Amino acid sequence: MDLRQIMYFMCAYEERSITKAARKVGLVQPALSVQIKRLEDEFGGALFVRQSGGIDPTALGMSFYKLCQPIRTSIAQAQQSMRDLQQPDQVFGAVRCGFPPSYLKAGLGPVLADFAQRHPGVDLTVRESYGGTLRRWVADGELDFAFGSSPLLESGLADIAVFEEDLALVSGAPLAGDRLKPCDVGAITDLKLMLPSSQHLLGPILREHIATGVIRPKRTMVVDSYLGVLEIARASDWAAFIPVTGLLEEVSNPDLFIYPIARPFLTFRWHVSHQQSKPLTAAARVLIDATITALTTKRVAWDKLCRQYAADTRNKSHGKNHNGKTPAAAAAKSAGKGVAKGVVSGAIRRAAKRKLPARQRPRR
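and the corresponding structure tokens:
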């Protein structure tokens, strides 16, 4: 057994097709079949079951794949480390990245623009889609990495959890009282809930909560558009769960009611995914760090907003505080100091200039 045979086997395993794997590694199909057969002869058992539509791994094949994963990762990391040593502290090359719609809504435009300006040697490509499509693009080599992906172990992708945030409930109707009032979703009667499809990372999570009775909507509607969700919510009493970093700019929108969720406890964990055989380059790591820093800044602003609302609620008299404003309006002004006017974007640009230390996990 040699390293080439391991790589050929892993490609066949991930493609589930000898023909596709041969095309990907630059061999003709009979040559790849010979290499797989040599491994099977060495191990004394079949690695794949040949089907009319492709191949399926046997138990022996699945075990061998798991053993091969750290080998491929170690080799790829060694190659990337040697390239970094040759040109230390230089950020250059092509970076092809993908983000879900809520990330770009969270104010990442300034982060990307700042990155492009600060690193003119980087050829940046940004694509937007939902989780399932982003995973496929990364697996097919169309993207170097994607935010929001949570791949399966057998897909050949490395998966890194990088950020966790709360979800908020948003609607055009006062479903749970005053804006920014923490709500118990289970106490909302006749909840009409918009759900993303299974291609969106939130889709399976929310459907699981519905199946277990944690969330009990009266009606559901599938909407696979972030802007579409906001527009429908703005014009109706339909509601949706959205990560808080994507809602901060909407806090003072008079057409929306945004509620932190008190019960059930709902958080969402974002991931960065890339191919195991292609470790993140220095340029990709800098962009990821800047993105996490910007998102952390957003989350801190949201937490401050909620704390200010709670303080104003305790001190209010007859529904208003000493400035004559409702707690929600006072919180938006006090915590954001111009959130509705987009001043948070400036904070993101400043935050993006500070690189997080390696492996630092944002504190909640």
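(Above: one complete record from the training split.) The CA atoms of residues 114 and 349 lie 7 Å apart.
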